[in-house]
Amino acid sequence: MTRLIITLLLVLLIDIYVFQAVRTVAGSFAPGARKAAYIIYWAISLFTLGTLLLALLTRGSAPNPTRMQVANVLFILFVSKLVIVLFLFLDDLVRLTQWISNTVRGPEQPKFDVSRHRFMSQLALVMGALPFTALIWGMVKGAYDYQVKKVTLKFPNLPPAFEGYLLLQITDMHSGSFHSGEPLEKAVAIINKQAVDAVVFTGDLVNNVASEVEPYIPTLAKIKARDGVFSILGNHDYGDYVAWGSREEKIHNLNTLKNHHRQAGWDLLLNEHRVLERDGQQIALLGVENWGHRMNFPKYGIMSKAYAGTEKYPFKVLLSHDPSHWDGEVNTQYQDIDLMLSGHTHGMQFGVNIPGWKWSPVQYVYKQWSGLYQKGRQHLYVNVGLGFLGYHGRVGFLPEITVFEFKRG
Predict the structure, then answer these.
(1) Domains and CATH numbers, the chain
(2) pTM (2 decimals)?
(3) Which of 69, 90, 248, 378 has its CA 20 to 30 A from that of 16?
(4) Over the chain, what HEC string results?
(5) Residue 52's pLDDT is what?
C-alpha cells in the first residue's frame, strides 16, 4: 500500500509541475479558452491517475488488448510529461540563478523578473508533444509497417553452388503482443513473396507462455522456402519471467512451445546443426539456445555441441538470439563461423534510423544492436525484430524482414 501511495503521489507531483507550463502558456488566452485548457488538462491527468490506480490494484490480472492499449497510452503520456519536466527544470535553474543574483544586488540595481519564462514553457510543451506524436504514430502505423531489407554478403570460402543463395531472417515475433492474426498474415505474404532458399527465425516466438502463439500456428505454417524453415529459442521462450506453480509446469510450457515450432513446420535447432546441400556441395547451419553475455541473461546455449561435426564444412551460419554471444564466445573461440544472425535488441523499438546514421538508447547496453557488423572474416547481423514487446509500436526501427544474398568474393 505504501508503494501504491508513493507512486500515485509521484505522478500527481509531475502533473502539478507540468501544469505550471500549461498555466503560463494559457495565461494569454481568453478566459473561456483558458478555463477549457485547464479542464482538459486535469481531466486527462485525473483519468491517468484513476487508470493507474486501477492497474495497480488489479495487478496480476490477465492482459487483454484494451488493457494493453490503455497502458501504452499512459506510458506515452508519462514519457511526454518527463520531457516537459526536463525543460521546466532548466527554466527553474535559470530562475534560481536570477533570484540569487537579485538578493546580492544593491537596492539601486535593476532586478531580474523571476517569474516563469513564457518561452521556456512554450518550448517545454512543444518538446513534450514530439515524443507524444512519435509514439502514437508508432502504435498506429509503425507497429506493422514491415520493412524488407536486402543485404548482399561476399565470402571467399562460399561453395560455388551457393552463389546467389537467398536466406531470409525474421526474429522476435512476440506473438503474445498481437491483437489479431491479420498483421502476421500480411508479414507471411511478404516473406513468401521473396521466394528464398531458406527462412530462419532467431528466437522469442512468445512473450512468456506457449499458448500465446497457438492462434497463429496455421498462419506461421504458411511460410515456405525451398530448403525449409529453421528456428531457435530466445530468452522469452523459456518462461523465465513467469511465476510458475512448479518446475514441472515450466518444463511442460517449454516442451509445448517446442512442439508448436514443429506444428508450424519449423525445424527447431537446440544446440545442433543442419547441413544444407546444393549440387553436391554443402554448408552448415548451426542453431544454439539462448546465450547472453550481457544483463545477466541466461546461458542455455551449448556452442560446442552445435559446432561438433561441422568442422569439415567450408562455410557456416550460426543462429544465436542474443548478439552479445558474438563477442562473448563466437569470434574468440569459433573463428570459422562466417555469419551469425541475431535479434533480441528490437532497436529498443525507438530511435532515429536514417541513411548513414542511427541512434537508439539500446546502443548504450549492446555494442552490436542493429544491422551488419564485421570482425576479420566474420560477420554478425542483428535484425531488430518482427513484433514488439511492452510498448505496442515502433518508431525509427520498424519491423524487419531481412533477405541475405550470398556471393563469392
Answers:
(1) 1-141 (no CATH), 146-408 (3.60.21.10)
(2) 0.87
(3) 69
(4) CHHHHHHHHHHHHHHHHHHHHHHHHHCCCCHHHHHHHHHHHHHHHHHHHHHHHHHHHCCCCCCCHHHHHHHHHHHHHHHHHHHHHHHHHHHHHHHHHHHHHHHHCCCCCCCCCCCCCHHHHHHHHHHHHHHHHHHHHHHHCHHHCCEEEEEEEEECCCCHHHCCCEEEEECCCCHHHCCCCHHHHHHHHHHHHCCCCEEEEECCCCCCCHHHHHHHHHHHCCCCCCCCEEEECCHHHHCCCCCCCCHHHHHHHHHHHHHHHHHCCEEECCCEEEEEEECCEEEEEEECCCECCCCCCCECCCHHHHHCCCCCCCCEEEECCCCHHHHHHHHHHCCCCCEEEECCCHHHHECEEECCEEECHHHHCCCCCCEEEEECCEEEEECCCCCCCCCCCCECCCCEEEEEEEEEC
(5) 75
